[in-house]
Amino acid sequence: MLEVYADGGATYGSNKIGYYGWVILHQNKHYEGNGVVELTTNNQMELKAVIDSITFCKTHNLIPEDGLKVYSDSGYVIKGMNVWIHDWKKRDWKTCPFLEKKGYKSGYTIKNLHYWTTLDELVKDIKVEWTWVKGHSGNKWNDRCDELAREAKLAFYRKTKGEKR
User: Fold this and answer.
1) Any catalytic annotation for residue 146?
2) CA spacing 20 to 30 A to 17: which of 37, 45, 71, 147?
3) Average pLDDT over residues 61-67
4) In 62-134, which residue ranges form alpha helices assigned H by DSSP?
5) What is the pLDDT of residue 104?
6) Which of the residues 7, 9, 18, 52 is marked catalytic?
């Protein structure tokens, strides 16, 4: 099973810069990628990291018959793919009625619909095991994803603003 690690983050305030990184472990090799998106959110970047890493796998024909094991420190991504997505699809990508009991409105289009539908389409023919990993806990590859994401953010600031953050 091919292992994929993905992580994303975002700054808050007026800039709202999102950044992400991913690592793919394939046989005795590993591949890395990262990127930056303006005017985005942390959850969108967590999803973007997974989308980009799986897209890379598909583009480079890396996906084995036994599928992928995707690791993320985002409960949003892991719960979304393991639990929520099944109900969202049944409800045409709308929020669940039980949320009304918790003070939320139901029947609205879910947040980040484009990212969720893109990810769903990407993995429709692939066996994927979605696994949560604790962030910033010494997991070598999750920590590397975080590092790649931050490198992308710093490179963006140097290029666009001449600043170091």
Assistant:
1) yes
2) 71
3) 95
4) 75-79, 85-90, 113-122
5) 62
6) 7
